[in-house]
Automatic annotation (TrEMBL):
Gene3D superfamilies found in the cross-reference section: Methylated DNA-protein cysteine methyltransferase domain, Winged helix-like DNA-binding domain superfamily/Winged helix DNA-binding domain
PANTHER family named among the record's database cross-references: METHYLATED-DNA--PROTEIN-CYSTEINE METHYLTRANSFERASE
InterPro entries, sorted: MethylDNA_cys_MeTrfase_AS, MethylDNA_cys_MeTrfase_DNA-bd, MethylDNA_cys_MeTrfase_DNAb, MGMT_N_sf, WH-like_DNA-bd_sf
Catalytic activity: a 4-O-methyl-thymidine in DNA + L-cysteinyl-[protein] = a thymidine in DNA + S-methyl-L-cysteinyl-[protein]; a 6-O-methyl-2'-deoxyguanosine in DNA + L-cysteinyl-[protein] = S-methyl-L-cysteinyl-[protein] + a 2'-deoxyguanosine in DNA
Keyword Methyltransferase in record: yes
Domain Methylated-DNA-[protein]-cysteine S-methyltransferase DNA binding: 59-140
UniProt KW Methyltransferase keyword: yes
Protein name: Methylated-DNA--[protein]-cysteine S-methyltransferase
Keywords associated with the record: DNA damage, DNA repair, Methyltransferase, Transferase
PROSITE patterns: MGMT
Length: 151
């Protein structure tokens, strides 16, 4: 699955850049559970994912990705807040670098990370600032609170 409007070859190149030696297998039956969750996300019915993945990166990158995963749907954090959350408040630029290496940028929501002033930054490897704005806008439209909020 690619981001909206993304050329499939660019997607494959991006995956292989982030995960050298990656082999992509098209197997809809094997991915049915994950694809259903993505469909639910894009209809606004799902706000969290329940998928398994094998994250490969440095200890620092994995700590950043786990902190990103914990950002609630429809909310944002700054790079500084993520750096502070992982116990390294001076590593703001390195957090940005780890976001850029995020191998599953929708499920681990790096689009929810903004500059300290709230500025849209980063996201170049996942569709650019325009895609980041669209994803945040989408989530804002589908954020509900109360008794009937999606899970």
């Amino acid at each position: 699955m690619t981001l909206a409007g993304e050329d499939e070859q660019l997607f494959l190149d991006r995956v292989r850049e982030k995960v050298p030696g990656a082999v992509l297998v098209h197997d809809p039956e094997r991915m049915a559970y994950e694809m259903q969750q993505l469909r639910e996300y894009f209809t606004g019915e799902r706000h969290t994912f329940d998928v398994e993945f094998d994250l490969r990166g440095t200890d620092f990158q994995i700590a950043v990705w786990r902190a990103l995963y914990d950002i609630p749907y429809g909310e944002t954090r700054s790079y500084l807040e993520i750096a502070t959350a992982i116990g390294n408040p001076k590593a703001v630029r390195a957090v940005g670098g780890a976001c850029g290496k995020n191998p599953v940028s929708l499920i681990i929501p790096c689009h929810r990370v903004l500059g300290k002033s709230g500025a849209m930054t980063g996201f170049s490897a996942a569709g650019g600032i325009d895609s980041k704005q669209k994803m945040l806008h989408f989530e804002a439209q589908h954020t509900q609170t109360g008794l009937f909020a999606p899970q």
